[in-house]
Amino acid sequence: MPGFIRAAIMTEIPPAIGSALLSGNITTILRETIKHFGCEAGTVHWLDIHSGLLTLAAHHKIPPHISELIGTVPLGKGIAGLAAQKRQPISLCNLQTDTSGQARPEAKTTGMEGSLAVPMITYGELCGVLGIAKATAYEWTEEEKNLLLAVAAELGEKRP
């Protein structure tokens, strides 16, 4: 990503998340992002180029039985898989009452409601997916989606 574009993106990112991004620690980045958006839980999945699957790299407050289920996610399956496949944000106001079929049934056992997953697009390539969730129903704004996309683009730079 050219320096001037990166500088423009970084000015939009809140300082605490920016500092976490500079640290390179994806768990810290995830925690600061969750905190900034007033969320309780979140995930980072990297795209495994060889298998074509999303693989769980970090999570916060995801129950063990769910983290096991989402250890690998096919493109197009669940919220993260759809965000990766469509290369656009996928949001649900209330995961618990959603009937769109976008979320996998076991996702409801997290207790989360307002969910947002965005693709990590870096240098035009899909690197993974960043997902966050609130324990209450929530309509995500375009501004919030765009900010999370900017964070995800920067996070994609940290892919091993």
Describe this entry's structure for a reader.
It is a single chain. The protein is α+β, with helices and mostly antiparallel strands and 160 residues long. The chain contains six helices and six strands, in the order H-H-H-E-E-H-E-H-E-E-E-H. Strands 3-2-1-6-5-4 form a six-stranded antiparallel β-sheet, sandwiched between helices. A hairpin with a 2-residue loop joins strand 5 and strand 6. Helix 2 packs antiparallel against helix 3 (26-36). The radius of gyration is 14 Å and the shape is globular.
| Major pleated sheet | 6 strands, antiparallel
Mean pLDDT: 87
What's the CATH class, please?
Answer: Alpha Beta
Structure class: alpha+beta
Number of domains: 1
Distance between the termini: 17 Å
Gyration radius, to the nearest Å?
A: 14 Å
Shape: globular
Second CATH tier, the architecture = 2-Layer Sandwich
Poorly predicted regions = 1-9
Task: Write a compact overview of the structure shown.
With 160 residues, the protein is α+β, with helices and mostly antiparallel strands. It contains six helices and six strands; from the N terminus they run αααββαβαβββα. Helix 1 packs across helix 6 (142-156) and helix 2 (15-23) packs antiparallel against helix 3.
Keywords summarizing the entry:
160 residues, alpha+beta, Beta-Lactamase, disordered N terminus
